[in-house]
Design brief:
Strand content: 5-15%
Oligomer: single chain
Distance between the termini: 59 Å
Number of domains: 2
Radius of gyration: 21 Å
Structural class: mainly alpha
């Protein structure tokens, strides 16, 4: 059976936010982080934000360009650039497409 109302299923327990399972002999496996989750990438000791990428793609009027290309409201794009809300993947794709387009035009 699965987890209902926050109670782990039989043979599992929650330790510091991680789920640990009983190995059948009464011992519990140590809680380890998920291997599928990638660590945060830092460049020169700093994390690159969504807003920084957008400013790199469009030094002027990043908000207007992002709103036009994604079809979202400019106010929503302003929240993404400020880091208040998480942008959808399509917005990141638009920014990366613009950066790559400019990269290939430089030769």
């Amino acid at each position: 059976m699965g987890e209902l109302s926050g109670v782990p299923s039989v043979g599992t327990s929650k330790i510091n936010g991680q789920i640990s399972q009983d190995n059948g002999r009464g011992k519990k496996n140590s809680a380890t982080p998920d291997r599928n989750v990638r660590p945060v990438t830092h460049i020169n000791g700093h994390r690159i934000s969504f807003g920084d990428l957008a400013k790199f793609a469009w030094p002027q009027k990043a908000e207007a360009n992002l709103a036009f290309l994604t079809g979202y409201d400019a106010r929503t794009c302003r929240r993404w650039l400020a880091g208040d809300t998480e942008p959808p993947a399509e917005a990141l794709g638009v920014i990366l497409c613009e950066i790559m387009k400019r990269f290939h035009q430089r030769d």
